[in-house]
User: Which sequence fits this backbone?
């Protein structure tokens, strides 16, 4: 397995985790400045990590070596 694919999978999982945390913050928010700020930060970072990880996994081709 290629190291870029592993890194892409880690980025994707981190993005999914951040998006889930942003959803939890959104569900439990009371409308304060701190809640909205953390919701935006985790949402944007989660989306960034998820999309960059998926792009890295898709763009990396499998290399088949000859035995």
Assistant:
């Amino acid at each position: 397995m290629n190291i870029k694919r592993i890194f892409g999978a880690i980025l994707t999982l981190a993005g999914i985790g951040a998006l889930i945390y942003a959803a939890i913050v959104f569900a439990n928010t009371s409308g304060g400045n701190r809640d909205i700020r953390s919701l935006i930060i985790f949402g944007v970072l989660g989306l960034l990590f998820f999309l960059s990880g998926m792009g890295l996994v898709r763009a990396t081709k499998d290399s088949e070596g000859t035995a």
